[in-house]
Amino acid sequence: MRGRKFQACGPVMAVYYGEEFNPEEMDVEVCMPVVESSVKEVEGVRKLPGGKHACAIYTGPYSRIGAAYAEIMKWINQSGCSIAGPSFEIYLVSPADTKDEEKSVTEICFPIGE
What we know:
By secondary structure, the protein is mainly β. The chain has one helix at about 65-80, and strands at about 15, 25-30, 55-60, 80-85, 85-95, 105-114.
């Protein structure tokens, strides 16, 4: 990918692998959405699968984001859905955009199945 130019088309994201949140041993993939035509058959670039997702928009500091995750999990459990893949966050307003943590905006998503 050295020297290759990609055209970004959205905010930075992070995909969180693993069953439980463990800050000591996290498997995280940081992602940047890019225009598909700029990455055809480039090694190391992949397309995230589409489908149904349970999502919530959280506004505030990351230190309190756990409550939003709890609400999404509650909805998933009550609706009879199952988690169908790793969760991910989309940083709509990130620390790079604002110095005020209270103004950070994160979309939290879980792929779901019936």
